[in-house]
Automatic annotation (TrEMBL):
Designated name of the protein: Glucose-1-phosphate thymidylyltransferase
InterPro entries: GMPPB_C, Mannose-1P_guanyltransferase, NTP_transferase_dom, Nucleotide-diphossugar_trans
PANTHER family with a match to the protein in the record: SUGAR-1-PHOSPHATE GUANYL TRANSFERASE (PTHR22572)
GO molecular function list: transferase activity
Species classification: Archaea, Methanobacteriati, Methanobacteriota, Thermococci, Thermococcales
Length: 331
């Protein structure tokens, strides 16, 4: 079996912060999303590959080399050209050969052990499922109905979900199922694995589910991104910074090197402050601030601010600010 981490999407739902940054490499606490996934693959002793696109390949090259994993690069540069998840699986087969594959979405953070997941793999397709506990929320995902651990119904993004149990981004596919991807791609949706699961089920293929609890985050929105930060940031990580004696840090926080915390500022809890940021006489909590951003005389709560921004004299709540923005209210 080979492990294939899918990181070829353009993450349009999180634009503008993902316009020039691959979602799988966004920070969550003191690590990036992909770090959490790769840590879970270590116990498997399998070959690990990261699938991405040509536009983002440059961001992954040094990362993959450092982690000892290989890159598969699809030849696309724009959202409208992308192969989609199933198209990328076809590319993997062409380049790596037909095999059993453990497929993991590169924007998913999950609590379970992959080793435990594969203990339930019997050579039939296996999907990881999670109860989101809300029918409105379930409409965004592939909804699963189970009979014990066997999938008896699957609806991709249904208007009226039959359950709140949804398919997450972890799948085990045997090679005989991988061999059917060509057949599926003649008419099937290339992007969402849910439609492939739906197609297999309608063709009489037995599909099984591994149900897990605790936590799961699909980093597809600013809310889910910030919730993941709250769950996974357990302790503070503060690098070499400058901090005013009048400022206060409420853990847990991450503050990267070169940051300057000036005046009467309050940082935290659950704040990520990127490299070389300046936070002056401001409060920042439940927020992610990317590198080289300046915040003065402002309050930032449950917001994400991209790099090289300048925010002055503002109160920002539940906001998403793109890179290089300058926003201020008059003194």
């Amino acid at each position: 079996m080979k492990v294939l981490i899918m990181a070829g999407g353009y993450a349009t739902r999180l634009w503008p912060i993902t316009k020039d940054n691959p979602k799988a490499l966004l920070p969550v606490g003191d690590r990036v999303i992909l770090d959490y996934i790769l840590e879970k693959t270590k116990e498997l002793d399998m070959e690990v590959y990261i699938s991405t696109n040509r536009f983002f390949a440059k961001y992954f090259e040094s990362y993959a080399e450092d982690k000892g994993v290989e890159l598969l690069v699809e030849d696309t540069l724009h959202e409208e050209e992308k192969l989609g998840t199933i198209g990328a699986l076809k590319l993997a087969i062409d380049e790596l050969g037909l095999d059993d594959y453990l497929v993991i979405a590169g924007d998913n953070l999950f609590s379970f052990s992959l080793n435990e997941f594969l203990k339930h793999y019997s050579g039939k397709p296996l999907i990881a499922v999670y109860d989101v506990g809300d029918f409105e929320l379930a409409k965004r995902y592939g909804v699963v109905v189970l009979e014990e651990n066997r999938v008896i119904d699957f609806q991709e993004k249904p208007a009226e979900p039959k359950s709140t149990l949804i398919s997450t981004g972890v799948y085990a596919f045997p090679k005989e199922i991988m061999a059917r991807i060509d057949e599926y791609l003649k008419n099937g949706n290339r992007d969402s694995p849910g439609y492939f699961i739906q197609w297999l089920l309608s063709d009489g293929v037995d599909i099984y589910a591994y149900k897990f609890d605790n936590y799961w985050y699909d980093i597809g929105s600013s809310d889910s991104y910030l919730e993941a930060l709250r769950t996974l940031l357990k302790e503070s990580h503060i690098e070499e910074i400058q901090i005013s004696p009048y400022s206060k840090i409420i853990p847990p926080v991450v503050i990267k090197k070169g940051a300057r915390i000036l005046g009467r500022s309050m940082i935290g809890p659950y704040a990520y402050i990127g490299e070389n940021c300046v936070i002056d006489s401001s409060d920042v909590s439940d927020s992610i601030i990317f590198r080289n951003t300046i915040i003065r005389n402002s309050t930032i709560w449950r917001s994400i601010i991209d790099e090289k921004c300048e925010i002055r004299n503002l109160e920002l709540k539940k906001s998403l600010v793109g890179g290089h923005a300058k926003i201020q209210r008059g003194d």
